Amino acid sequence: xxxxxxxxxxxxxxxxxxxxxxxxxxxxxxxxxxxxxxxxxxxxxxxxxxxxxxxxxxxxxxxxxxxxxxxxxxxxxxxxxxxxxxxxxxxxxxxxxxxxxxxxxxxxxxxxxxxxxxxxxxxxxxxxxxxxxxxxxxxxxxxxxxxxxxxxxxxxxxxxxxxxxxxxxxxxxxxxxxxxxxxxxxxxxxxxxxxxxxxxxxxxxxxxxxxxxxxxxxxxxxxxxxxxxxxxxxxxxxxxxxxxxxxxxxxxxxxxxxxxxxxxxxxxxxxxxxxxxxxxxxxxxxxxxxxxxxxxxxxxxxxxxxxxxxxxxxxxxxxxxxxxxxxxxxxxxxxxxxxxxxxxxxxxxxxxxxxxxxxxxxxxxxxxxxxxxxxxxxxxxxxxxx
Length: 386
Description:
By secondary structure, this protein is α+β, with helices and mostly antiparallel strands. It has helices spanning 3-28, 79-82, 96-125, 145-149, 168-177, 244-277, 288-299, 303-321, 329-342, 348-376, 379-383, and strands at 33-38, 47-51, 54-58, 65-69, 127-140, 156-160, 163-164, 183-195, 198-211, 226-237. A five-stranded mixed barrel has the order 5-6-8-9-10, surrounded by four helices. Mean pLDDT is 84; it is low at 379-386.
């Protein structure tokens, strides 16, 4: 499936789940929902249908979504004045707790989605038991002793002449000591599922490979002619989810992963804040372009890594949305907290104006980050044929 299609599906799922949280909370509290939409309402919708009081629509600019609640930004007059049958179903007239619940429900749904996907990943791949770093071959030089001996990319070198190897430095020192002589390498070869926390070990077999390290290797090549790195390999407990032990293990690990990624995203946001206050450009930040590329790379590894990526992005979306920035859920909740503290409600015109500034700010940041992604990924150079 093309990367563009996968990216749009992933983005749509994340947005729809988030907005579904607002929608369901409003329905439960009997607040009228005027529109439930995927996409930004900058153009007429390409699809719309009305069911009951709610219009369901899809807009061509799919980078977002929204739920429009009745009386969200304006006060509804009394039915004694207007004879309006929908008085009492508006968002404006609800208490602070109900409004907070509706706003927070989107973030809650993102966390529920992340937890569910993590649990599904562990239900299929197995519940992680332990992690071990292994020296892994990521490149083999043509005509090198390693190629002659039959060493392949993704092989794990676990021993050199019976001595356990745990780091790339240990491997390099060991083979240099055998330069010009035949040395036996224990090579582990087999399948695995690449996840963000490591490679889940599948079926594998061990074999002994004899290789003769070079005394004077070509410049830029090692004695054996391999490019190596250290990858974490995860040993899992695979069993039926019909087993209570396995089901509890998957849910427990899914909860741990969700909490861990909330912490990582939070720390990442703090680092971005520190960089901005120091007048430096934040590093390691990706916008739509960077996420698009990452989605394509992960999708090549299979559907399990893709599900884990969606879970991680859902955590990112949830944590990002609680930031006290106007136009985000956190900004809207901040207005309610201020109302709670001051005993006065901010005028809807002022709140709308501040939220508009927030939207403009967020769009500007997204454009800048996307431009940074374009430069970092060399998109411009490729378009110019350089």
